[in-house]
């Protein structure tokens, strides 16, 4: 097994952003809304903050209590949408159960939605006309192409929980000549056979050890977009120990998709600031 590291890809993207920001006359401003005190969400927002500051982006962290009313969160978003100084807005997910996540995402000004979660941004991505690309699919594609393997004619399996994610991944893969199928995590019966025939496996289900070495064919690229906690450790979907003796390229968790997703997010903050 060889590792497909996301760290180097992320560093390259971040140094490009830093160079571009240094040439401008104003630092882009990035606002992150964080609801409640879920420790993992605080860690993720802190990672984004650290990376933003390292490239010269001003970061505003807005923490709201777990009990915040949906209307109050919407009012905060309206203020940030209207604030000319703010280029990018992120609402850290998951939100508490009493809040309708889709209503919140829909309320973001699409030109400031640096995660690329807003339906307008998803639609533009599917049409190949994106300004702010959805960062997760974009980061996965960065890892796939970083393998340096000719992709034309290859076959992919994308495993996930969300049809929209599946659709975005299949569209992005088809643009580099890869034909793919999307398998929902619950479609267990067809899962193993399909994964075995794939040259590229993308998994994002958040279940530890979901993809094991006996499921992937020799020479495959395996991109692990899963994230879960086992005790104190952050792990992906791939059972790395069962891959060790196989001829496969695996993006690890941590150190794979995660850092590239943050770099793509900050690239969107820069692009959003440019758009004004
Ligand atoms: N929660 C887990 N991943 C993400 C992400 O990429 N963006 C946001 N906003 N919340 C998340």
Keywords:
276 residues; alpha/beta; Rossmann fold; 2 domains; 6-stranded parallel beta sheet; 9 helices; 41% helix; globular
Topology readout:
Layout: E1 2-3, H1 6-23, E2 29-35, H2 39-54, E3 58-64, H3 70-82, E4 88-91, H4 101-107, H5 119-126, H6 135-146, E5 155-160, H7 163-175, E6 179-184, H8 188-196, E7 200-204, E8 221-224, E9 228-230, E10 233-235, E11 249-251, H9 257-274
Helix pairs in contact: 1-9, 6-7, 6-9
Question: In short, what is this structure?
Answer:
By secondary structure, this protein is an alpha/beta fold.
Q: What's the alpha carbon Rg, rounded to whole Å?
A: 19 Å
The CATH topology name of the largest domain reads Rossmann fold
CATH class of the largest domain: Alpha Beta
CATH architecture of the largest domain: 3-Layer(aba) Sandwich
Task: Give a short account of the largest sheet.
Answer: 6 strands, parallel
Mean pLDDT: 95
What is the H level of CATH, i.e. the homologous superfamily of the largest domain?
NAD(P)-binding Rossmann-like Domain
Number of domains: 2
Strand content: 15-25%
What gap, in angstroms, lies between the N and C termini? 45 Å
Hetero compounds:
guanine
Q: What is the structural class?
A: alpha/beta
Catalogue the unreliable spans: none
Portion in helices? 40-55%
């Amino acid at each position: 097994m060889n590792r497909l590291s996301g760290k180097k890809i992320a560093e390259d993207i971040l140094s490009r952003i830093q160079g571009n920001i240094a040439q401008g006359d104003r630092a882009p401003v990035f606002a992150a809304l964080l609801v409640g005190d879920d420790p993992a969400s605080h860690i993720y927002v802190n990672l984004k903050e650290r990376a933003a500051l390292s490239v010269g982006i001003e970061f505003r962290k807005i923490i709201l209590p777990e009990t915040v009313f949906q209307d109050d969160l919407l009012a905060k978003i309206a203020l940030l949408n209207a604030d000319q100084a703010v280029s990018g807005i992120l609402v850290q997910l998951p939100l508490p159960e009493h809040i309708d996540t889709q209503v919140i995402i829909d309320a973001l000004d699409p030109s400031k939605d640096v995660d690329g979660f807003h339906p307008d941004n998803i639609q533009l991505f599917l049409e190949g006309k994106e300004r702010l690309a959805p960062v997760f699919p974009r980061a996965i594609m960065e890892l796939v192409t970083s393998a340096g393997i000719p992709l034309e004619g290859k076959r992919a399996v994308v495993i996930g929980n969300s049809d929209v994610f599946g659709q975005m991944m299949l569209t992005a893969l088809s643009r580099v000549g890869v034909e793919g199928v999307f398998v929902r995590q619950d479609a267990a019966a067809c899962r193993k056979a399909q994964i075995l025939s794939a040259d590229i496996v993308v998994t994002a289900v958040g279940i530890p050890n979901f993809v094991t070495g006996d499921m992937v064919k020799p020479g495959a690229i395996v991109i692990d977009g899963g994230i879960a906690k086992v005790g104190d450790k952050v792990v992906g979907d791939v059972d790395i120990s069962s891959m060790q003796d196989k001829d496969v390229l695996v993006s690890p968790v941590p150190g794979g998709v995660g850092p590239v997703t943050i770099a793509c997010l900050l690239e969107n903050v820069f692009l959003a600031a440019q758009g004004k």
